[in-house]
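Table 4 source record.
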Amino acid sequence: MDELLMKYIKGETTPEEREKVVRWLDEDPEHMHQYRSLRKLYDISLWSPIEETRQEEKQTRTFKPVWIEFLKVAAVILITFLGTKAFFDGKDDPVNMQTVIVPAGQWAELLLADGTKVWLNSRSKLKFPDRFQKDARKVELDGEGYFEVTHQEEVPFTVHTSKYDVKVLGTEFNVKAYKDKEQFETSLLKGSVEVSNANKSQTIRLKPDEQVVSDGGQLVRSTIQNKNYFRWKEGLLCLDDESIGSLIEKLELYYDVNIVVQRPSLMKYHYSGKFRIRDGVEHVLKVLQLKHKFTYIEEEEQNLIIIK
């Protein structure tokens, strides 16, 4: 399996091989651990000290194209379309439901049948049809997605999550709704959206630069404070006076790792800055070490990082 995983990391697999790998990763958490170990070795090999004298030259020729492919065409390497389910919408041709899953530490961009652009953040899953019905466009999201919806006045676009539904006609917005997290958040950048709970007992219509979050089962409206946050769709983790505690929660979510802080005094600090998601959780911790004195150890078998 290691040989196939390495082909997968390099982007050299066939569609059938990619599907096999993604299914294998989804079968067992230990499989993801094995993948991460190989991925780390591959990353290190790109910066081999043996080639240090030609590092700048190699960066231009080799490193950059690898990452361009890795990030901008993430679907080629780290995600794939999983099992399709056919149903009929009144036409002779069946509608196939497709699922895209983004592993920890990655993001992906895709184009839906109506021209809508979708960016998916780490550990996110999107279900969508290969073509939309005449009177409705519906997708299902588990995780975080940024949507630029193609305007079709007579055909609303709905993002269904486990907590709330977001309904639009044509707009640009971000939805954060991981099934295993209590938090729900929708932020509107352009246009107009309606957010409602399952029984429609509460509905809020947002204006541009507004967001709504769930608080005790109720939706609460506020103003977007940090638009740089949405640059995650460019592969960036942007922080604006972010508490260390909040940053650690993001690292746990994005990289699917457990982090235990044994130094409570560290939690009172705040941090502003930008990180490339592709650089990994260790890079973030090493940068924080430049400002705050702490050490950390990794327990890879337990998928755990302990900060002391």
